[in-house]
Amino acid sequence: MAENLADLVAAEDVLLFVNAAVTATGQREFRSDAHEQRLSLGFLHEYVRVNYRPVYAATLALDINDHNAALIVEHLLRTPHDTSPAEKRVEGALIARRLAVLPPQRVYRLFRALRAAGVGNRRTRAIFRDWLAARPDPAHDAVKYRSGLKSAARHFHVRLSALSASSASCAPGTGSGAAAGGEIGDFLFAPGRRKRYEHRLLDTYRRAHYEQGALYELPLTVAEGFAARHGIAREGFLERMAPRMTRLERLRTQTRRATAPGAAGGTDLSVMPLTRLALYVLSLAPDERVRRRAELTRALRTGARRVAGPYAGAWGRVAAVLDDSYSSYGSGEKRRRPLGTALACHYLLEALAAPGAYAALWTSGRDDPLLVRPYGPTPLGTRILDALDHGPDRLVIVSDGWDNAPPGLAGEVLRVWRTRLDRERRTSVVHLNPVYDADGFDVRRLAPSVPTAGIRDAEDLPALVEIAQFAEGRTGAAELRAYLDRRVRNFLADDGTCLFPGADRGPGLDRGPGVGAGAGTESAS
């Protein structure tokens, strides 16, 4: 009995940490400031790393956010002596694979934090060297992330002379040829040594100091500094840079004035990530949303169908209760993030439901998802009753869990539904919460009988609904360990690595969009 209780506690601790790693970013939320968020998150990381280190490392294979992925890598690399050689090899593979999918600027920030902490062990040096060697064009990094690469190369003793760039830069249109590592070293540490560089991008950066035309061949974030130095008007600068911008850069720099689809400076919204697109839609004024209704709706539904993939229409009858109350505004740092997640979930659930079998109920009572805004109280209980009236196969609630009109009604409705009206569990109920509760070290729950999972991006919804079954208590710790091991093997491209010896290797739980998988990884243990 004691062993079963210990397993139950361990499983609850792991699920609590996963919820935090999905939702928390250490930034201010609607009901807690940034200091409270960081303090709460820091305690959770330390607690799980010390008590469940293999599971802590395995979390890198789940759909956690980049902030927590970087924190996990940092904590693992700062404590190399707290694990066995076998576990260290698995950690090295997981770290290498996760760094490969993290944004490069976040990786450089991570290595800067390791340098500040005085971490320079052999494993960390090998991981950075292998990650840098796998970059498409180190010369592009030398230009765009100059301070980060320079700091890390000096601290981790990387021989830049051993690096060579690929024939094509990762910046579209750079047209750079191969560059010797010696050029990169001179560019970073002795910029006055060479009068010109063979690598086109390095030489363009040199010329941009005195030649205005050269800056339009640089990445946007680098060119902006030179434009300010040369006194170039912002509007004209962005217009000339438009062909070289990435999709996300074009989306960020689009002005609020009318931008016709296909016009210069515009971007194809249908290829944007679903949650990011939803946040962009919410940033537009209501009258512009109305004017561009056809374009925006088409883009959102296209993105949702792309995420749903082969599971489009496979969820049967679906009802969704979506929170657009005042607290869905989030904070100045995470502006409209909870509402953006709910809007993206709306279109994804519409795509997953059977045709004509989807019902969306916003807490405000609105029926036009394109015009939702954070306003009013949170009458979750009433909306859940309305949703259950549709007789759905699945009920998905997307809310921060602060039911206040009246308080506690949602929990009582769900309790009675589960214990009195639906004992056979004909309706699957899941609560997805986009907000981390710093005081409770978890996302806020509506009822003990309803599984709750944290969510940040709607793209992860199918996988999170799957994880929620463990929170419901219908599966045990052994199933959770087997699930994590399968996710690790998927993440490492099924290289045979097993984090939990003896775990079930059969098929079953891992399915649907959101499962990370790559073509391979280099072990940097």
Please give a structural write-up:
This protein has 525 residues and is mainly α. The protein is built from 22 helices and seven strands. α1 runs antiparallel to α2 and α17 packs across α18. The longest helix is centred in the first third of the chain and has 22 residues.
Q: Strands across the major sheet, in which order?
A: 2-1-3-4-7
Q: State the major sheet.
A: 5 strands, parallel
The total of helices stands at: 22
**Quaternary structure classification:** single chain
Number of strands: 7
Question: Low-confidence runs (pLDDT<50, min 5 residues)?
Answer: 165-178, 255-265, 500-525
Globally, the shape reads: globular
Could you state the order of secondary-structure elements as H and E? HHHHHHHHHHHHHHHHHEHEHEHEEEEHH
What is the CATH domain class of the domain at 293-473? Alpha Beta
State the share of residues found in helices, binned by percent.
40-55%
State the CATH topology of the domain at 293-473: Rossmann fold
Q: Could you report the average pLDDT, rounded to the nearest whole number?
A: 85
Using only C-alpha atoms, the radius of gyration works out to: 25 Å
Question: What does the secondary structure layout of this molecule look like, with pairings?
Answer:
Layout: H1 2-23, H2 34-51, H3 53-58, H4 66-78, H5 85-101, H6 104-116, H7 122-133, H8 138-144, H9 146-155, H10 181-189, H11 200-207, H12 220-230, H13 234-241, H14 247-253, H15 274-283, H16 286-291, H17 293-308, E1 318-322, H18 337-352, E2 358-362, H19 380-388, E3 394-398, H20 409-421, E4 428-433, E5 436-437, E6 442-443, E7 452-454, H21 461-471, H22 477-491
